[in-house]
Sequence to fold (191 residues):
Amino acid sequence: MNGAMVASTTIIAPLGAVSIAANSFAVTAESLCYMPGYGVSAAATTLVGRSIGAGEHTLAKRYGGICTAMGGFLMGCTGLLMIFLCPLVFRMLTPVEEVRQLAVQVLRMELLAEPLFGVSIVAAGALRGAGDTLVPSLMNLGSIWIVRIGLALLLVPVLGLPGAWIAMAVELCVRGLLMLYRHRTTKYYGV
Fold:
């Protein structure tokens, strides 16, 4: 993941100081949206792992599904809230209007992917609780490097910073769908 962040920064850096600043502020604001997802993910890991340890495999899969839906819903809500609040957040972070406008533009594009980002975070947590770690990790790695970085390389030269954030939004949706598929089809739940 850190390597992909370095690659993303390398792709964005030639766009200049305004794009670098807008990207940094947008990443900071977006991080407020996924905190609930990581909280629900930790709960999913615990509930699924405990249920499997107790031999309640059907309950484990059910907990995984409930938590995954909850994570997607909560992150959808935080994303929706941030769509409206991000101009205020960026006013607190920078006095530079050009940076604020670009940050609002790119963040709002990516926030549409928050529900599926929530699904990916929580489904991965449920799968961890079930002991399924290798395939979700490879899915995550492939999604980031192939979809996000690949699309960013294609879109940034044409669209600038919005191209990087479109690539991120598409990748988060792909990752969410991959994790949802893995959650529904894995045999680690024993069901």
About this structure: The chain has a mean pLDDT of 95. The chain has one domain: 2-185.
